[in-house]
Predict the structure.
Amino acid sequence: MLQNLRSRLVAAAALLLVQAGPLPAAAGADQVKAEPSVESWDGRRALAIIVDLLRFTPRSMETPGHQKAIDYITTELKKTKFDTIVPQRWIAREGGRILAMTNIIARFQPDNPRRVIVATHYDSIIKAYRDQKNPDAPMPGANNSASGVAVLLETARVLSEMPDAPPVGIDMIFFDGEEGPISMGAGDPNFRSLGSPYFVSRLAEFYPKARPEKMVDFDMVCDRDLHLKAEASGLRSAPAEVKKFWEIGMKIAPGAFEREPAPYGIQDDHTAFQNAGIPSFVVIDFEYEPFYNTTEDTPDKCSAQSLEAVGRTLLRYLYLP
């Protein structure tokens, strides 16, 4: 993911914060009806997924770990009711490279006409370019990007075991190429995501009758010191959904969800959906120093409790109308 240049966002973010104001107090979540039990969402299981994924480092395009990550995600999904799995494959010519790309789309209740997208990316940074000692070493990517994959896979497991299904059909999408054409993320001055724009450009292939109602994206959500702030583009694109998600989060994990929005925007896989007019937002804790894109982005920097805060919030959110 790439933090937008603050100098270009100061005026817009300031106006946005004036209009939106602080997020409501968590008491608003008391109005949620028929809340499903979320206790079966297990942060330890999610953390184990992160450990598994790091066996394939690096997981960037054109590396052996890339296909191994695809195989792992597909195998885990087949254990759940997200068993309508569609790999979206294409060849991209980017940055002087020819890249074999794969988005993984897994559908729950595929006959439900109401669709919600829950997404993350699985590709990793090719090297730890911000590491002062070993900038050419592989970047493990426990938080960026294995944490989002862990949240989705554990959510798929729990949803498959729930006695009642949510009122909406759910499409989980694991995007390729979020870290850009040369797999360097914010270290690439020409950064742009690849997988999510490709999917959006072919949206009608998956949604021939009605577009998805909304999209929520997860990235960098396992930090031991988790502080989640609603970011600017999501507040513009999907203010009601952001409010709903943060109300639930402040009730489930008040220490992890911040009431005040972030004073900047984030470009991630939700951006392509926003550009297409689909209400979308990202759940991310971008403040991850000093480990961000270094060799120190390892599982010991992650927390099962942080993963539970996010995963249990998502689970309850999906049961709301």
Summary: The chain has a mean pLDDT of 91. The radius of gyration is 18 Å. The first helix runs from residue 6 to 20. The CA atoms of residues 27 and 199 lie 37 Å apart.
